[in-house]
Design brief:
Bound molecules: nicotinamide-adenine-dinucleotide
Structural class: alpha/beta
CATH class of the largest domain: Alpha Beta
Strand order of the largest sheet: 14-15-16-13-12-17-18
CATH topology of the largest domain: Aldehyde Dehydrogenase, Chain A, domain 1
Strand content: 15-25%
Shape: globular
Radius of gyration: 23 Å
CATH architecture of the largest domain: 3-Layer(aba) Sandwich
Number of helices: 14
Largest sheet: 7 strands, mixed
Number of strands: 20
Number of domains: 2
CATH superfamily of the largest domain: Aldehyde Dehydrogenase, Chain A, domain 1
Distance between the termini: 78 Å
Length: about 500
């Protein structure tokens, strides 16, 4: 069944031409493959191999560690406004290079060009935020206990940071980790996802061109478990920032615990959305469909479980399904595409598994439920925007993060049961609700268990707001003042 309109795929992506210059960036040097191991990078839109990514050897990782260690004293000693000047210049360069970087992100990740352009702008804003926030790493002077005694609290950079960024925001995820570390005065080694290396390398290039001293940042790739084990086990690394799945986050925390290292863990979610019966249904549907199918649902704060008041339930399901069927799936490079392919074939296989399982538990499929066919792109990883309803809690998709273009819609009759369902899972990243009642809004704010809550809105993240979850969705926040704080330690000094 092909329920979505497909756009014609005629964009010029060819395996013959590299889409980006794939290298390692170690201690300020661009390192080509040479005799290193490597892996192919595949276009999700076409299924073609588009580049070959070198893997860092053990020696490469050690050089990155040495550079992070040796350059830390100089970078932390640089005045925050000087560090900020470099970050701001890098932000300007990102903006100037928007078309080039957005195209790389679309080619390697699949998202639409419009989404990729937005992500470049977001990354520039993140750098600007940390450029400014680094100047506000304030300490404090405590009231004296006796004459001649001075007691001060200072904030200092924690030390070299290792960041592990996933593929779904190939520009923004590395920018968050690098921006926080550099703004706080820390050196940084980042391992972006091997599926989307070109975007992260462009972020590093912007920093290099902005005058970042050699060795303050390294970008490495390889077998994720090998690279993370090597970096986290090194005494050089003092803090870890990971975005990815809950199971991998738990593994990395165990490794970090061996060295008592600071961790920021931004893990998965299973976003509940409560829709009450006092809303403008069409308006909520228009917002919901765009939010659900953004980046083919591969967003950690994606709305996933819709709990809709029984009085508007049938209308909501029908309206969602009609909009999903009309959503245009295609190559993200092609003008007019609303949803690109999924990032890799693991995700399309996961969708098939989740949907078959939901059906076997009695769930109904109102739209999609199958891979999508896109003209001219027979081997791309496309999936149809999918709407399920009446899925029982025993189905896997009601318990595991689907990370794909699937909306699940179930009815509720009263506030307490809706909250109970919303909070049922061990996840607590993002939650959303739509209502016009001020009283309900207050109760939702109090009772929803999530790190970020959107009421009458899906806009829950700007660089000045903390981004992070509770429960098994992780701990610590990126961005906001909390994002800088994650890269700082507190020192108390008493003088008499
Ligand atoms: P995965 O768990 O294999 O990989 C997710 C990310 O973690 C990738 O970037 C990968 O390179 C990295 N990773 C995996 N093992 C690692 C290790 N031992 N050390 C360091 N990094 C490691 O899963 P996947 O198939 O690529 O993605 C699917 C799942 O990942 C989703 O279901 C979702 O839960 C999660 N995910 C979450 C986010 C997020 O924004 N929180 C982003 C991407 C993926």
């Amino acid at each position: 069944m092909q329920s979505s309109k497909a756009t014609s795929g005629l964009a010029p992506v060819s395996g013959a031409e590299p889409y980006a210059d794939l290298k390692l960036f170690i201690a300020g040097e661009w390192v080509a493959k040479g005799s290193r191991k490597s892996q192919p990078v595949v276009s999700p839109a076409t299924g073609e191999v588009i580049g070959e990514l070198p893997h860092a050897s053990t020696e490469d990782l050690d050089r990155a560690l040495e550079a992070a260690r040796d350059n830390f004293p100089k970078w932390r000693a640089l005045a925050p406004h000087e560090r900020g000047r470099i970050l701001r210049k890098a932000a300007d360069l990102l903006r100037e290079r928007t078309e080039r970087i957005a195209r790389i992100a679309t080619i390697e990740e699949g998202k639409t060009l419009a989404e990729a352009r937005w992500e470049v702008g977001l990354s520039a804003e993140i750098f600007e935020w940390y450029a400014e926030e680094g100047r506000r790493a304030y300490g404090r002077v405590l009231p004296q206990r006796a004459s001649g005694v001075r007691m001060t609290v200072v904030k200092e950079p924690v030390g070299p940071v290792a960041g592990f960024a996933p593929w779904n925001f190939p520009i923004g995820n590395p920018a968050r980790k690098i921006g926080a570390a550099l703004g706080a005065g820390c050196t940084c080694i980042v391992k972006p996802a091997e599926e989307t290396p070109g975007s992260a390398l462009e972020v590093a290039r912007a920093l290099e061109d902005a005058g970042l001293p050699k060795g303050v940042l390294s970008v490495v790739f390889g077998v994720p478990a090998f690279v993370s084990t090597h970096l986290i086990s090194s005494p050089v690394i003092r803090a870890i920032s990971f975005t990815g799945s809950v199971p991998v986050g738990k593994q990395l925390m165990k490794l970090a615990a061996e060295g008592m290292k600071r961790t920021t863990m931004e893990l998965g979610g299973h976003g509940p959305v409560l829709v009450f019966d006092d809303v403008d249904v069409d308006q909520v549907l228009d917002l919901s469909v765009a939010a659900k199918y953004r980046n083919a649902g591969q967003v950690c704060v994606s709305p996933t479980r819709y709990y809709v008041h029984e009085r508007i339930y049938d209308r909501f399901v029908e309206g969602f399904a009609a909009r999903a069927k009309a959503w245009r799936v295609g190559d993200g490079l092609v003008e007019g595409t609303q949803m690109g392919p999924m990032a890799n074939p693991r995700r399309t296989a996961a969708m098939d598994m989740f949907i078959a399982d939901a059906r076997s538990h009695g769930g109904k499929v109102h739209a999609g439920g199958t891979p999508a066919k896109v003209e001219g792109r027979p081997n791309g990883f496309y999936y149809s925007p999918t709407v399920l309803s009446d899925v029982p809690n025993s189905a896997r998709i009601m318990n595991e993060e689907p990370f794909g273009p699937v909306a699940i819609i179930n009815p509720f009759s009263d506030f307490d049961s809706a909250i109970r369902e919303a909070n049922r899972l061990p996840y607590g990243l993002a939650a959303y609700a739509f209502t016009r009642s001020a009283k309900t809004v207050n109760l939702l704010g109090e009772q929803l268990e999530a790190g970020m809550i959107g009421i009458n809105s899906y806009q829950i993240s700007v660089p000045e707001s903390p981004f992070g979850g509770v429960k098994e969705s992780g701990h610590g926040s990126e961005e906001g003042i909390e994002g800088l704080e994650a890269c700082l330690v507190t020192k108390f000094i008493t003088e008499s």
